């Protein structure tokens, strides 16, 4: 650790594969059900001893191929063949839910003009862009503003949240929902390429 780095705050968890410690919000938690089935604990609240994994596809692959889950669970377990898909679908679902909550609470807007107005007024804490969107249009929208940008969903998925066929730009107001969307989008980024 370099002297200028800030010390970690909050509970840290150790990845069963990389052995690196990180904040629990940046990792994925799994538990073993009573029937010895491995369960992805999306909200990290299920009872039982958590098996923590860095939120990256290569780490998941190593855990699956090298028996990382079996060693951490201290015995044989059943692992679903579509575990990666469960992780991606679960994280996308949470992001859609949080964006929906933000929309209903008046903490999110969509559309180029509305998002630009929020950015100019300093009301945007997070910019959610459609995956595969134009980088040059994003730069034109952002200008020199230092607002975090995530690209977790395609335009049709974003649009569905706002009752549109598609949406490319979404701005979120500061608050817990923006933080949760950003955390889940960063975890999802380890599994999908945009």
TrEMBL record:
UniProt cross-references to Gene3D superfamilies, sorted A to Z: 3.30.1330.30, YlxR-like (3.30.1230.10)
InterPro entries in the cross-refs: Ribosomal_eL30-like_sf, YlxR, YlxR-like_sf, YlxR_dom
Residue intervals of the YlxR domain: 13-82
One Pfam family from the record: YlxR
SUPFAM superfamilies reported in the protein's UniProt record: L30e-like (SSF55315), YlxR-like (SSF64376)
Record's protein name: DUF448 domain-containing protein
